[in-house]
Amino acid sequence: MKVKIRVADPAGNITIFVMTPLEKERYAGIARQILERKELGGEQVAFVERTEQGTLRMEMMGGEFCGNASRSFAYLLCRLSGKERQECLVEVSGSPKPLKAIADTAKKTSQVDMPLPKEIRLLTIEPGEAYDMIVFDGICHIIVPGKPKKGEFVEKLLDRAKTECPCGAWGIMFLEGERMIPAVYVESTDSLVWESSCGSGSMAAAVYLSKAEEKGEFVYVLKQPGGEIQAAVYKEQGRVCRCTMGGPVSISPEIELELENNEVDKI
Known about the structure:
Layout: E1 2-9, E2 15-18, H1 27-35, E3 44-50, E4 56-60, H2 67-81, E5 85-90, E6 99-104, E7 109-113, E8 119-126, E9 129-136, E10 139-145, H3 152-164, E11 169-176, E12 179-186, E13 191-194, H4 199-209, E14 216-224, E15 227-236, E16 239-248, E17 250-251, E18 255-258, H5 261-264
Parallel strand pairs: 2-3, 10-11
Antiparallel strand pairs: 1-2, 1-17, 1-18, 3-4, 5-6, 6-7, 7-16, 8-9, 9-10, 11-12, 12-13, 14-15, 15-16
């Protein structure tokens, strides 16, 4: 079967938008097959859906929330509208309400208001070893200070996070100052990706870095393998009242992709 796609690049976190309408039960199989196309360089897949009202919404491959995909979707809507700059609301998976976004195709940037964190929870791995976990609707991010660790450490952390926060997607953000290495696991596609950048993970890092602050605007530029993402946290009386995340983004013209039917139908 043939599907039409667009390839978005938000700070290196390559997101493949599937533009062709498809049945939701096929999403996981299609996403797995697209991610296997190494020439596309995809780190995640998003599906563009048309609502009953005729508007467009975005569904991530595992129904999770993704900040980079959300702002890329806002950029895509701006491109499709033919406008140079557009303020809009984007409806995306993992967010209980539409999010405000600003896309500028001349400057090649896009910013989105992020869902507020539900809580900061301490994730205890074993006595004497615990990490802050920032819980959002649709995804939980564990902040690990220091250099990246792989293998058994990541597996142990994910196993514990799945038990404590069963949300379908989990990120591990290795943080040194404002330098960050993100890894994200999505349950429905059984995929662990060391991402070039992570939008919601950047937001989680900003929330973590500002946790001792009581009032004001706190802006962080998270330097990641694929580029920089600016995340801002607004606080009142120690409570997070607004989060925004933005940075550069580009998107390809529409591409037609041939998929194997037997692979597409695998769930």
